[in-house]
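@channel sequence for tomorrow's demo:
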Amino acid sequence: MTPAVGEGKMAMLLAALERFKDHYEADSPLSAVVPALYARNEARYRGYTLQKLAQEMHDFYASKNVKELQRLCFRYESFPEQAMSARDANEALVGGEVDFIPMSEVSGRVAATARV
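structure tokens (generated this afternoon):
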């Protein structure tokens, strides 16, 4: 939570988390916990409980070593090499030195995004 979040919003979040925890401990059917998700994907989640889905997600993340991947995301050694300085990039953007290309060609290119 951040200081900008009021007590009312924090209370609503805590209540929702407590309801979710209760559903987890009761091993509630997924259809009762997230009915919209279940309705859109009934064939996939038929017979699932919240615990079963949580375990499936945990097993997937563990098998892909996501914990280590997340750690590496914030290590300096994992950052991509800087293609140009922020100043050069801004000058190119302001100068109209940008290309509109399809997504299939973006690999190796620098994104041009204006900030207001």
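heads up for whoever presents: Residues 62 and 68 are 10 Å apart (CA to CA).
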